[in-house]
Amino acid sequence: MSTIPITPDPADEPWVLPDRGTIGMACLIIAESAIFVIFVVAYIFYMGQGLGGPTPKQVLELPIFTTICLLSSSLTLHWAVVGLRKSKIGAFNAWLAATVVLGAIFLIGTGMEWYHLIYVDGLTIQTNLFGTTFYSLVGLHATHVIVGLLMLIAALIFGLTGHVDEKHAHRMDVLSLYWHFVDAVWVIVFTVVYVLGR
Amino acid sequence: MFVLSITAVIFVIVAGLLTYALIRYRHRNLLTYNEPTQIYGSNQIELAWTVIPALIVVMLFLTASRVILATQDAKKPTDAVDVVVVGHQFWWEYRYPKLGIVTANELHVPVSDPAHPTPTYLEMSSADLDHSFWVPRLAGKMDLIPNRVNTMWIDPEAPGLYLGQCAQYCGVQHAKMLLRVYADSPKEFAAWVAQQQKPAVEDPAVAEGRAAFLRNACVNCHTISGTPANGRFGPDLTHLASRDTIASGAVENNPTNLKQWIDNPDSLKPGSLMPAMHLNDHDLNAITAYLTTLH
Amino acid sequence: MADSVSGLSSVEAIDLTPVEKPRQLFLEVLYDWVTTVDHKKIGLMYIAYSLIFLVIGGIEAIVMRIQLAVPHNTFVSPQVFNRMFTLHGTTMVFFVGMPILFGFGNYLVPLMIGARDMAFPRLNAFSFWISAFGGFLLYYSFIGGSGLYGAGSAPDVGWFAYAPLTARVFSPGHSTDYWTLSILLSGIGSIGTALNIVATVICMRCPGMKLNRMPLLAWLYLVTSSMVFIAVSPLTAAQIMLMLDRYVGSHFFDAQAGGSAILWMHFFWIFGHPEVYILVLPAFAFANEIIPVFSRKAIFGYPAMVAASVGIGFISLSVWAHHMFAVGMGAGANVFFVFSTMIISVPTGIKIFNWLATIWGGKIRFASPMLFSVGFLFQFLVAGLTGIMLSVAPFDWQLTGSYFVVAHFHYVLVGAILFMIFAAFYYWFPKATGRMMSERLGKWHFWLMVIGFHLTFDFMHIPGLLGMPRRIYTYEPGRGWEIWNLLVSIGAVIQAIATLIFVYNLVHSYYKGEKAGNDPWDAWTLEWSTASPPPSYNFATTPIVHSRRPLWDIKHPEDPDWNYE
Ligand code: HEA
Ligand code: HEA
Ligand code: CUA
Ligand SMILES: [Cu+2]
């Protein structure tokens, strides 16, 4: 038998609670940030401590173009969600596709950078401490970009096949939180690796 | 000790109150049951038991910091003895750079007279993994860590043998990485130094053993000064016979143990990094005989 | 006992007696459990899983104690001994402590906040199975871990696996890989469950359950879970680095290439210290629920308790290097960590004193849950005070890495956490199964456990003070350690007997126990308002609460709690 009175108390204000999707994503972001912090700390700790080259100064170039692509993809994703909320599925698809393209350009950029580093400069993860920390930090970030990109592509496919409407705007919000986070991390990685690290 | 007494007092007070409450308020009479008065809190009391522990903490903290600063920032006297300590998997290497001595496992230091202290400064690092130097009656621990030099000092005031052992887990035989520190009177210490500085004894009676030693792989890992043997992976054996124990304090240094050790180190110290050399009986006896002459 | 709430039948109520299900085939039952996303079933699976590991970890402890009972013992080889303490420590922390606490959290949090399930039921099942897989992987190393000569089977690097012992050169073979992988997986599981609990507490509360009306248990789980994000993630990151080192040859912790052993220590303890509070806060949570009910008083100083928990959570993030006083940090760093460590005793003290004040003036019923809680109070007090001694760095230079530390942390892990886990079993068993656990066996269990515990862990302090380091598989006679080690070993056997009684009691009471009814303890939180065991939807109608103790309000309409908040 239940023993809870079921008559609501009229004095109580309406009962609204935060959305669980947003909270869940926020928690995930906190946890992920902690992981990134550790990798960044390792990078800073070993900065300039490698025994033998190549050093960051010799081989790293500023990836300005890809950085601009990645950061602007945050904007395009934002517009995509705005479009979705207004039920403009066409705009949503277009902006989302733009986001995917920009993210892909970033990844290709990273891939080319790595190719150059490995085959031209002879820097691998085994070469020295710089290689170790560089590839793991940038690689960790790139993995996140890949994951984000896969989810965006999935959303895009749903969008193109007509399975998305403004009821899903909220889910896209949560997803875009993740994407913004990945972008924000890049700002830090960029500062530490390409600015301070050189 | 100060910390001990403070914590003991706290324990007595809190545990006392708790016991009192438990006995006084245990529920006896099941029949005349009614709920006790509900109390939800009290700001004054709660403030009190926040502030009082905070004060105790500050007091403990100040005492602790004073000791930390006194130990870590102590000035090094000019006539301190310097020793370089290198931790190896399951044995200790000691080098006296100013005196030109290299030895292993048994550390000799001069007794330090409080009026005229001659502390020993240990510069510590490791050849492989983390170890920790711990002789409880001489000082606290200090870790030996690869790529890093830590320092500590000891100044034993009474002569004698101080026992200790490695206190940071370092693999299979962490348990038998024992430490022996001999605090010698100044005269004994001087004699010990003089003797260690000599090159290895060359006794013609054991020339055969010496040849067998040099013929075998022993030379790759061990040094005996004055001979071609200059390996650094294992302990320096130049003055092996002057030591009371072998294999980092694992067993007493006598011919039987020595022979068993050379024959099969694992039987005395399973997992030690010296391989069994599979010598024939003749070589084994000869080498043992040779090593026992290395005073 | 069940009549004590009979006065309530006048309240408008709904009959929740579950429909009797037809008997199912074994395979159907199994399928049911494996595919379930019900928070109660997942909670129970977590608990059962960690009980199994408790027994395994306990057997490992017994092996160690037999080996150490007398000097120069040859019961096991050094290699086996080293594997035993590595597995014991790893198992107890990652596969007993964490899952059992998450198990209780899973079971209780939704019930206590009046929710029907966790926020993300499928994530919940995923987290459980991935942690479970981690545990199996650790033990699979016995079979799969063989490698080169001397590499042995199970990992033998110690539970904090200091670098560079874990590098390929020093740990050939695969045993260490199993260790990192299993920790990595269980870490992912923990983060998933923690995320779930936070989202549940924040987003699933029933109407009226404002943050300041939540049961303290929900608060503490909120704090613990939030700490998991910040504490377990660094461990995950460090394990990724270690795997990269071992598999693709990077040099994070490789001393030969300039890598640093100290970096691992920092990363491990940035996780390791908050971890011990992650383990202890749920134990506090149980105490917060049990002590008031058995003293028949409301918890003393609810706001202070919440503040203290949050405070402990924050402070504990800044104290990690007190495990590293002997690595040769500068005096400044040492002083800082002494201070941050000590300051934790202030919020912890508040908790102790508030429990004391809750008991004060109450009417105490010494049923098994309360007995264990009382044991917890005394033992946690001692453990905390030895912790304070260790936090005084000069003292710690002597005692770190010695059996004094082992005694300190078992005092907390066993004397506080395990005791509260037992208390929680006695307290919530009736809710989960509908039957009471035997009080008589409970008393036996309690007293044997207390005797065994004190025999083991009181006397363990002494060899530590006499210079006995930890993690040694044998020792020389003549340094005054023999007698203490023998007593310690005897105590461990008594603990094993006590634990066996407990396990028997669980099984026996499950089938034969006295029927419990909905509210056997005459308690005040929401989980006691539904049937025992609760139906899969928990509450037929979503409850609405008006104070911290909704059932008190119903039982005492003349003097409800909301008058005092
Ligand atoms: C749940 C587990 C748990 C908990 C709660 C604690 C709580 C504490 N621990 Fe412990 N600890 C461990 C588990 C735990 N510990 C483990 C597992 C290790 C070893 C890991 C390993 O090396 O393998 C360890 C090791 C450890 C060390 C390192 C030892 C070493 O290796 O050198 C230190 C040093 O400072 C320490 C300190 C403390 C302190 C100060 C507290 C404080 O939180 C205690 C606070 C409580 C009180 C103080 C009592 C109540 C307060 C009052 C009654 C108020 C009045 C008191 C005062 C004003 C002092 N612990
Ligand atoms: C939650 C955590 C937890 C718990 C509950 C325990 C419980 C126990 N621990 Fe453990 N311990 C640790 C966490 C824990 N420990 C950690 C983290 C370490 C450090 C590891 C490292 O250094 O890397 C450690 C290390 C450690 C050591 C030090 C090893 C060393 O440094 O050399 C010892 C030695 O005595 C020990 C003993 C015990 C004993 C006797 C118990 C007892 O309380 C256990 C009682 C329970 C049982 C005995 C189970 C019941 C058994 C049965 C029902 C089966 C009975 C059947 C048979 C015996 C066949 N533990
Ligand atoms: Cu060297 Cu332990
Ligand atoms: Cu700690």
TrEMBL record, chain A:
It is found in: Cell membrane. One of its GO terms (cellular component) is plasma membrane. SUPFAM superfamilies: Cytochrome c oxidase subunit III-like. One of its GO terms (molecular function) is cytochrome-c oxidase activity. GO terms for biological process: aerobic electron transport chain. Pfam families: COX3 (PF00510). CDD domains: Heme_Cu_Oxidase_III_like (cd00386). Keywords: Cell membrane, Membrane, Transmembrane, Transmembrane helix. It comes from the Bacteria. The chain crosses the membrane at residues 23-47, 59-82, 94-117, 129-157, 177-197. Residues 1-198 form the Heme-copper oxidase subunit III family profile domain. Its main location: membrane. It is a multi-pass membrane protein. Gene3D superfamilies: Cytochrome c oxidase, subunit III, four-helix bundle (1.20.120.80). Belongs to the cytochrome c oxidase subunit 3 family. This is Heme-copper oxidase subunit III family profile domain-containing protein.
Automatic annotation (TrEMBL), chain B:
This is Cytochrome c oxidase subunit 2. It comes from Edaphobacter dinghuensis. Belongs to the cytochrome c oxidase subunit 2 family. The keyword Transcription does not apply. One of its GO terms (molecular function) is cytochrome-c oxidase activity. Keywords: Copper, Electron transport, Heme, Iron, Membrane, Metal-binding, Respiratory chain, Translocase, Transmembrane, Transmembrane helix, Transport. Residues 78-195 form the Cytochrome oxidase subunit II copper A binding domain. The chain crosses the membrane at residues 6-26, 47-69. It is a multi-pass membrane protein. Subunits I and II form the functional core of the enzyme complex. Electrons originating in cytochrome c are transferred via heme a and Cu(A) to the binuclear center formed by heme a3 and Cu(B). One of its GO terms (cellular component) is plasma membrane. It catalyses: 4 Fe(II)-[cytochrome c] + O2 + 8 H(+)(in) = 4 Fe(III)-[cytochrome c] + 2 H2O + 4 H(+)(out). It is found in: Cell membrane; Membrane. Residues 204-295 form the Cytochrome c domain. It is an enzyme of class 7 (translocase). GO terms for biological process: ATP synthesis coupled electron transport. Its main location: membrane. It comes from the Bacteria. Residues 1-75 form the Cytochrome oxidase subunit II transmembrane region profile domain. Binds a copper A center.
UniProtKB/TrEMBL annotation, chain C:
It catalyses: 4 Fe(II)-[cytochrome c] + O2 + 8 H(+)(in) = 4 Fe(III)-[cytochrome c] + 2 H2O + 4 H(+)(out). It is found in: Cell membrane. GO terms for molecular function: cytochrome-c oxidase activity; heme binding; metal ion binding. Pathway: Energy metabolism; oxidative phosphorylation. Its EC number is 7.1.1.9. It is a multi-pass membrane protein. It holds the Pfam family COX1. This is Cytochrome c oxidase subunit 1. It comes from Edaphobacter dinghuensis.
